[in-house]
Amino acid sequence: VTKSHTIDREFQRQIDEILLGLCHLKTAFVYDSLSSTNDHAHLLEQEQATSGTLVLASRQTQGRGRLNRSWLMAEGDIALSIIMRPPFIPRNWALLSMLPAITMVEALANLSICVRLKWPNDLIIPGDDPKVPLSYLGNYRKVGGILIENVFRNNQMAASIVGVGLNITANPKLYEQVPHASSLQILDPAIDRLAVLRQFLTCFDQKLMCLNNPDFEQSILSDYTNNCETLGRFVVVNHADKTISGQAVAIKPDGSLVLQDGTFQHIILAGDVTGT
Ligand code: BT5
Known about the structure:
Helix content: 25-40%
Order of helices and strands: HEHEEHEEEEHHHHEEEEE
Bound molecules: biotinyl-5-AMP
Strand content: 25-35%
């Protein structure tokens, strides 16, 4: 974990101004560069940071995806982590990754940018060249991802670190390494990182305020389902040396994906999905 990080004062001031109007997201640590905002959030969590503490960085040297895969970013992209603690955590943990995903969909829709979701945690946009076979999901490209890391102490959930990465700037170096990656600037050349963050943080804060509404879980699930591009498609799932294929037909309340293969139903808890 980086020890010698510098605060990005101008960016910090802009984020602080956004947080002034919010209820739960109250404190932010905004850096030039970190190894990973999730790593830094874990450090703050160990130092008793309160629920709603935010970490942002303009660059990451060791950004992470799931299963220790690497997450690449360029200056101007979004990398953020939010420390969440009980009771400000949905009782159904499956909602932990759905919540930032649908919040980002809503935030970008408010800026007239349409992104979709790829199960379980990718933010995607349509590509512009339908002829390139990408073995990802049809003609869609990945513009963002979510990484949830839960912290347990004494058999109890002490915190959840909610990490969100979003590609804003066009980044040819990234597309070379990840052919199915894209960036929001390609859809909207005028996109503004701060406007995206303002929308995202405001929407996320509002959602947290609704955590105790009786229909909260149902509304997150149905927002997720409605925005999930995986559903309806014929997909292949790879997980731990196993391959399962079928039509994606539903998302269950525990976050699993239901595949229909002839008369069989497969319930997929985790895995990487590709589809046409
Ligand atoms: C994810 O993992 O998609 C979760 C990414 C979470 C990143 C955020 S940034 C802030 C916070 N701090 C961190 O260190 N992480 C979080 P996964 O589904 O495992 O996808 C990882 C895969 O996406 C890689 O193996 C690449 O193929 C691809 N990839 C890497 N960088 C990408 C990018 N910038 N855009 C699109 N795809 C990328």
